[in-house]
Amino acid sequence: MPEEGIRIRHRLITLGLLMEIGYLAIGLPATPLAVRVAIQSVLFVLYLAAIREACRRSLQGNALLALLGLGVLFRITLLFQAPFYSGDLYRYLWDGHVQVAGQLNPYRYAPADPILAPLHDDIQPLVNHPDIPTLYPPVAQLLFAVVALAGGTVAALKALMVLFDLAQMLLLRAMLRDRGMSPGRVLIYAWSPLVITEVAGNGHLDAVAIFFLILGIHLIIVARPRLSTIPLGLAAGAKALPLLLFPVLAPRIPRRYWPLPFALIGLAYLPYLGAGRALFTGLLEYAERWQHNDSLFRILLRLLEALNPTPALKTLIQWMQSQLGNPSWIPLLYRYAYPVYLTRLGVLLVLGGMAVWLGWRKAPPLRACYWMLGVMIVLSPTVHPWYLLWMVPFLVFFPSRAWILLTGLVSLSYLEPGPVVPGITSQAWVRWVEYLPFFTLLIWDGVRARRAEASTLFHLPRYSEPGETPTSSAASTPFSNS
């Protein structure tokens, strides 16, 4: 290996060892939340330095394996620690425990329901929102039950999530190799502090759904569209979000196979049909009530509140009621005449319209899903840090400076309510620091892209569809390679 290559490898290993020290500190139970967030910010800076070094030379062979091995070490370091940012993992464990120990339906009974009192254990007091039945789809529930059969421990569940995470690393590396791109770019995912803390540290289920989504997209790209319907169905069966991506991917799949993902989801729901309408109670509660760390959604909501369309809409509903003879469904419309619900419905219509448009244009699947997920995040009423996990695999191919920056800033939302700044609420303070740099860089790069001066992180070549040659600076739009 040339001397410069050896120096780069040594620098990367040094950065990796420094990051390992950070993960050892961040996983300690006694580490305060603010200190954890500060450590993660330092880890993100080291991560950027590592990517920069990795971009200077094509990493292959033993050098790449050593760096991927460090990525595995980061995950093992946090694997046996209790979740430190989010308690969602305890809901996963509880849902599995209810199914295995009590042979009961987690969609039918909320954790606080008296009928589940005999099943209470050390996990139940840690479950968030115990008054709401589970919102997780059936493929996720089956995985929770499997973990419960295997002992139902925190480490067992996190190990399952990490296995999907590691499979994701291998899949991304294979996809890079197929397109003739540097396999070292997999470090964008493998060393991401967000991925490591939210999957190995907090055990988030998203790792499962994202793996199946990327696998389905990969099968479409390599001309196996029929087979892609299986992982796409599993992805939506683990998390509902991929359902909005189906219209984008459907034009690449023969029409007679379109029902297969939905049939797979329906099959997974069969053991839980006894819950009846309660199957979707938890999901509807989330969709209608949750709002946290949002950006554009909050702005749209404030605009609608200022316009105050509610009185006019109520008058319209009353007129409809008189004209239609007071049907039973009319009173339901009154609930959705308020700005908070109108904004949610508006966002859903925008996303649905964008998905149909991208599908109609037959936009390249990887790029179209990247755009869809990005718009979902900036319009969503709820943006927990682990929601950015959905973007990270796409950043391996589309290394947007703005989105990679947001993966480092989003952990600041754990500080809400954050430090007090005179004249500014703590929530606003955190959001300004989190979103202002992101949107500024996103807009700046968007303007440059329109001038054919697209910027990527450290000038990494952008992804190209089969038949194209990767380029480093050409402007890229979602339809440029349709």
* Count of alpha/pi helices: 21
Q: How helical, in percent, are the residues?
A: 55-70%
What is the succession of H and E elements? HHHHHHHHHHHHHHHHHHHHH
Main beta-sheet strand count, sense and barrel state: none
Q: What separation lies between the terminal Cα atoms? A: 40 Å
Beta-strand content bin: under 5%
Mean pLDDT: 89
* Structural class by secondary-structure content: mainly alpha
Indicate the radius of gyration in whole angstroms: 23 Å
* Shape estimate: globular
Q: Spans of 5+ residues with little confidence (pLDDT < 50)?
A: 418-425, 470-482
Strand tally = 0
In short:
The chain is mainly alpha-helical. It is built from 21 helices and no strands.
Description:
The protein is mainly alpha-helical and 482 residues long. The protein has a domain of 50 residues. The protein contains 21 helices and no strands. The longest helix is centred in the middle third of the chain and has 25 residues. The radius of gyration is 23 Å and the shape is globular. The C terminus is likely disordered.
